[in-house]
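Notes from the 1:1 (GR / supervisor)

We went over the backlog. Supervisor wanted to see one worked example end to end before approving the batch request, so GR pasted a single chain during the call. The sequence is below; no edits were made to it. Supervisor asked that the structure be written out right there so they could see what the output format looks like.
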Amino acid sequence: MPARTSAPQDHLAQNGAPRGADGEPEDFVWTSPGGVEVRLPNAKAYVRGGDFRRVRKLDGNDAMWELIETAVRRAIGDVEDVEAQVELAFDPFDEITLVDLNQCFEEWVEHGAGATPGESSSSSA
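Structure output shown during the call:
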């Protein structure tokens, strides 16, 4: 049997999320034009199809915050001060403009989930 050669997909997790050297899903890192760094968990690793289904009736803004909070909570895991950790993850959003906020959200979704909340024309009302 020939020796197995590595494939480009070998660095991906089972769900397709890129993995870092430590084996953990790589975070999404975005820097605003003003220099504020936003770091979010990889959407592909921490957002599931059911999460989109659950937020399908929310407006786009509420849906995106819900998806981000869900991803942050899953990435943090079961820690004693989870609320404080979630707030720390959201702190950079307080310092960026609404235009930058929307750009960050769009790029996070494109980076990982591949679909935007509210885009499906097949969801029922």
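Supervisor's comment: Residues 60-76 form the longest helix (17 residues).
Batch request approved.
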